[in-house]
Amino acid sequence: MKEYETVIGLEVHVELATKTKIFCGCSTAFGGAPNTHTCPVCTGMPGSLPVLNKQVVEYAMAVGIATNCEINRKNIFDRKNYFYPDNPQNYQISQLYHPICVNGHVDIQTEDGVKSIGIHEIHMEEDAGKLVHDEWEDCSLVDYNRSGVPLIEIVSEPDMRSAEEVIAYLDKLRLIVQYLGASDCKLQEGSMRADVNLSVREKGSKEYGTRTETKNLNSFKAIARAIENERNRQIDLIEAGEEVVQETRRWDDNKEYSYAMRSKEDAQDYRYFPDPDLVPVSIDDAWYDRVKAAQPEFRDEKKARYVKEFDLPEYDADILTGEKKLADLFEATTAICNKPKKVSNWLMGETMRLMKDRSMEASDLTFAPENLAKIIELVDSSAINNNVAKEVFELVFTDNIDPDQYVEEKGLKTVHDEGALRATVEQVIADNPQSVEDYRGGKEKALGFLVGQTMKAMKGKADPGMINKLLKELL
Amino acid sequence: MSLMQLTAVELGKKIKAGEVSVVEAATAALDAIEKRDAKYHCYVTVVDRETVLKKAAEVQAKIDAGELTGPLAGVPVAIKDNMCTEGLLTTCSSKILGNFVPTFSSEAVLNLEKAGAVILGKTNMDEFAMGSTTETSAYGVTKNPWNEEHVPGGSSGGSAAAVAAEECFYALGSDTGGSIRQPASYCGVVGMKPTYGTVSRYGLIAYGSSLDQIGPMAKDVTDVATILECIASHDPKDSTSVARTEEEYRFTDALVDDVKGLKIGIPRDYLGEGLDPEVKESILAAAKALEAKGAIVEEFDLSLVEYAIPAYYVIASAEASSNLERFDGVKYGYRAKEYEGLHQMYKKTRSEGFGPEVKRRIMLGSFVLSSGYYDAYYLKALRTKALIKKAFDKAFEKYDIILGPAAPTTAPKLGSSLSDPIKMYLGDIYTISVNLAGLPGITVPCGFDSKGLPIGLQMIGDCFAEKTLIRAAYAFEQTHPYTRANVEE
Predict the structure, then answer these.
(1) What is the ipTM of this complex?
(2) What are the b/e assignments for A42-57, b being 16+ CB within 10 Å?
(3) Active site residue ranges of B
(4) CATH superfamily label, B3-258+407-479
(5) Rounded to two decimals, what is the model's pTM?
């Protein structure tokens, strides 16, 4: 068999985090009873007119600057005409002729070092509504709550060659957008969606093969699987002497299989033309400069700074900066308690463990950095021991309780009164003659049991070091 | 004399003075509609008497309480049926919107209501404003009050005829390629298309969005200036709405009988082939009348006039083909009774719901936007539009006003226009370039042909120069007062 190279370009849709829709004042909040976040504009009522939400331009511009794009200073919106009930006007307002950002790139880390992935363009557009099929009534219903939610579409050049590069590129985009606060980029909830354009060619060939576009990819894993599958499907076709058909395919992640949705021959003519209801938006130098100046510290810079400024291990810095929310929590908590490594340990340890248990994403974290800082202080001052701290932290994690108050109210403070502890230890020794004998006979393990019994009797509020010391002394 | 003979401003004064009540005025209008509309068919929908009179009483109470003091407070009005009116059927004279009741009112209508207008009903029009005769309406033809065998013009034919037939005190129309000015001319009333962006398009059901503009239709220039002052506003809901200075919004300040030194240009191209000699004679006589009042009148070459019609029909149809996509049977309006699957539902709904002229323009518009033709047609038309605007800019360096006819002939006979659409499109030659260039234009009655049909004088101003137009139209009107159509009382 010949050697093949996979050529991949991505179209990534990102739902922007504006409070209101792109062309009307309706809420973009996820959920809500059907058609409650709607108005005449986003339901396409006759006579309604769109008015651009400038925040959309601002976010798109910010993403463009962060991905090294040139920013088009005169922005025109075009209508993309097609009939479908999720699209209330039967045209989508998008940008074809003058996308806001062009000619950018982002650098990704690959096995062979740094690779630059070209960004062909980024344009602004509106999302469509959602069709719901009612099995009982055998009819379709439409919910326009999502209609008019702002999107940017980031179109890459066909610069990627493997699923690993695709994932690295997507992760890079996700972090850039999250750091900008332009979107939460959740693949599962659809606030970030990627369509994969893929073709294969013989290694060394300069010509591109015929490409397909695969849609409905809801996780990084699905993307990796779909790429592998589509690459093999195309190679099999070529090896069998058949032709790859230019078409759009839909991925079914349960069946790990894609099927053809429509071929190029069925491709619609969208009859794009500039939307006469919207006026061109000019981006002047002042606006551009303001957005550029407001660019945050991105992941790579932040990572380097964490190592340098907080003396964190590279590993910690990498994990913490891998989610904007974790980095924010780290910085805010450290600012309060000034114990970076301890904060890092809590975030990478207990926090991530609890997130995993509950299948949460970092963006779902709600606890206040003040409360994590308080726990660290309580442990450091030996007011509570580690086990109690973990117990209290779980409540901080779930309900954002105030640890000081909670520890006080529940009487969880470690008992430092040696007299009281001595009495308990004496009692434990008296109650467990077998273990005492074992210890004296050289079984070190028996000591652990006695420590545990003492801690139990103290309801967990004892200092383990002190128990050890007393036990040894009395034995 | 019947109350219905009063102009809107005259009636407003009488209401203010307590000589006429709002209920009396509304009753007179409803009686006139009842008596005459079976004959002229100006209205698609007339609001029921109880609702109108209740509203009239409310407005009266506000006038009595001193809350409503404007010149149009209490004056009944007719609205073209392409402007949304909350809770009131709005059909665009199309079967596809035959059951459509809007949930909100258009901004222009709201502005009128704030000023104390009482809405009588919705006037007939060419379906979706596509046509020049009001004959493409799905709800029957409107007849010209000067001669029932003739059309009232279009597309705002119902509004023009309702004013001329004294079935309202004033009306709103909309003008995409002459749809206010041409029917005003055919029906012997005054109609004005303001500068693009002057009156909000919010709630106006779009035909050609970059060309559409709402404007007043009434018996005289004073009314038209007063109505415009009321409906013009900067509306943040319409991105193409323009904010103008307070002084610029005071259109009635221009009601001055003085054209001394006003420079008027008549494009030679407007007087050439195709223009009816009687119309030409009347227009030139009107120019003479203005000259006699001290205006300076001369002929000049405007150029590009012959390109306006093709450019217009490409742009307006392209926009219309997209604007009318939302009428699909899914959300509101007509839906075909029987169909299998979504695609057939769309197809049958739209095939059955739209009339032939609308379908023609949707097809034309879809064609010029389709891939491979976009550059050759749509882009070229946009460039032509820009050149036409330049030609006007150049003319306005020299002239304050451009003067000409509103249409090549007086109102044609019913049934004589639709069989030859190209000929019908050519009839828009004098009005269309005004929309392409976004300019204001006004039509005032200036005479009659030998058949006794009215002739309208069109005056065109530079962008935002409505006041110059109003002044010239007002001065001309002093030499040529309003003539009533012979409507039976």
Answers:
(1) 0.96
(2) bbbbbbbbbbbbebbb
(3) 80, 155, 179
(4) Amidase signature (AS) domain (3.90.1300.10)
(5) 0.91
